[in-house]
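Regression test case RT-17, inverse folding.

Input:
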């Protein structure tokens, strides 16, 4: 199957998975709020962020292994694939032990982070269940999902996920409705995670039987190079986790669990949008990694420019929609008592855009195997984020935390990652990239401003929400259409989209 066909199938299957997930996710969240309340919602967000920190033990091995799988998958080198997967399996077993040690070290600090805000909640039991869920990712076959992703067969993962999501969501709603049990809700997550990994593992064993047939090992010299990549990827992963996890922890300590609960509703909306966008970018990333392994720099750079424009349009338009519609949606969904300020929503939406661009740049950098260049940049980003968030939260509250994260991303990721990709990956100058992306941001703010002015008078009802969506979508199409039609990337994008749709139709 060609790269294009695989990408299209991944996108279609993933979008079906996303729609199903979103419908069920909002149903479960509504039941969660009504039965357990906003305090449990905040606690859930805090523990999710804590275990994102524990996932640092993964060291970025998944990205480094995926990069090394592209070429042997392209040429059908079964021994090489088997050797990489055997090493991957052994690495994840070691990671599981490291996570247990890290969790035990973190255990005494739980009371300090949460304080006395979690009344009548056994935080240590909750902590133990989250450990079980995290370990289930590394101990039970999860490493095999990387092989499917590298081979552009992510649609298989999505297919099994659909079955699991249906069953687990129904179980969560029943447990919340009849028993109001937070512990039961968490146990469903653990069981569903194990079951999903088991189904994927069984499919991989069937489709790639040679993984167990060969016992080749990676030589010591290559292992040294791999560990250098692991270390560099680990530093980037630290930065990613700190940027995504620090906000809730800082808010919990300085503002309180209730605010974290309100904030989690906005992150749910943002994550829901990402679920629509990531399948497209993940499919493109694997295709680009395979493409780079076979084609010239010039051809690869043209594809990069087109994919960059797609990312700009998707995340730019989505961030505008998030700014215009999030407070309206939350008001219609669970009431205006759960909404936050317009300034917060503006900052949150811009942060969403930056995270999308950072994700794209990270995926491109990983696909090109650029792990070691500027490997200490993430530490600078982490330090800026922590210091800025802690200082600004005391003066601006939740808006200060978001502003701190934006500041860190603007001063580090958005400057250094493009430089690394252009100079070490494509051997092109970066100045044109920066100028074009500044222009794209200007278009985004113009479309956002016009959408805000036009939709402001519309009533906050289900019908009003629908009208606001249509008007915002129309303004985005007009502004981006008029602003982009003259660019060479746009002129190259349209024929590629037509070709892709024709192939999908066939």
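Golden output:
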């Amino acid at each position: 199957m060609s790269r294009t066909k695989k990408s299209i199938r991944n996108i279609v299957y993933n979008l079906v998975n996303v729609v199903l997930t979103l419908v069920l996710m909002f149903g479960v969240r509504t039941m969660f709020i009504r039965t357990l309340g906003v305090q449990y919602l905040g606690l859930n967000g805090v523990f999710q962020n804590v275990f994102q920190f524990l996932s640092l033990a993964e060291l970025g091995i998944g990205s480094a292994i995926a990069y090394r799988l592209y070429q042997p998958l392209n040429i059908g080198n079964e021994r090489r694939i088997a050797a990489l997967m055997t090493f991957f399996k052994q690495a994840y077993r070691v990671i599981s032990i490291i996570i247990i040690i890290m969790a035990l070290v973190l255990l005494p600090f739980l009371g300090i982070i949460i304080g006395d805000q979690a009344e009548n909640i056994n935080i240590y039991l909750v902590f133990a269940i989250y450990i079980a869920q995290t370990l289930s990712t590394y101990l039970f076959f999860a490493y095999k999902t990387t092989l499917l992703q590298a081979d552009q067969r992510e649609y298989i993962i999505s297919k099994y996920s659909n079955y699991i999501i249906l069953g687990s969501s129904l179980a969560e709603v029943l447990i919340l409705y009849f028993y109001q049990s937070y512990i039961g809700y968490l146990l469903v997550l653990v069981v569903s995670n194990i079951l999903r990994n088991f189904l994927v593992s069984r499919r991989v064993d069937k489709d790639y039987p040679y993984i167990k047939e060969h016992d080749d090992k990676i030589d010591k010299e290559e292992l040294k190079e791999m560990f250098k990549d692991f270390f560099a990827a680990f530093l980037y992963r630290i930065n990613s986790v700190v940027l995504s996890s620090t906000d809730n922890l800082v808010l919990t300590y300085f503002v309180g669990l209730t605010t974290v609960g309100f904030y989690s509703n906005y992150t749910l909306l943002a994550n829901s949008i990402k679920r629509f966008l990531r399948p497209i970018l993940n499919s493109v990333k694997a295709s680009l990694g395979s493409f780079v392994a076979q084609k010239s720099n010039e051809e690869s750079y043209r594809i990069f420019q087109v994919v960059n424009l797609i990312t700009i349009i998707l995340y730019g338009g989505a961030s505008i929609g998030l700014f215009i519609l999030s407070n309206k949606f939350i008001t219609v969904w669970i009431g205006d008592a759960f909404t936050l300020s317009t300034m917060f929503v503006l900052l949150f939406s811009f942060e969403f855009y930056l995270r999308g661009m950072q994700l794209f740049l990270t995926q491109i950098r990983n696909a090109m195997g650029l792990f070691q260049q500027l490997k200490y940049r993430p530490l600078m980003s982490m330090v800026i984020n922590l210091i800025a968030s802690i200082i600004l939260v005391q003066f601006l509250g939740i808006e200060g935390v978001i502003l701190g994260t934006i500041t860190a991303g603007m001063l580090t990721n958005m400057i250094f990652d493009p430089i690394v990709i252009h100079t070490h990956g494509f051997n092109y100058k970066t100045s044109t990239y920066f100028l074009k992306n500044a222009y794209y941001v200007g278009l985004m703010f113009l479309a956002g401003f016009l959408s805000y002015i036009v939709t402001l008078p519309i009533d906050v009802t289900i019908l009003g929400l629908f009208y606001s969506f249509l008007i915002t979508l129309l303004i985005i199409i007009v502004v981006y259409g008029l602003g982009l039609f003259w660019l060479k990337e746009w002129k190259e994008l349209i024929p590629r989209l037509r070709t892709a749709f024709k192939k999908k139709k066939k």
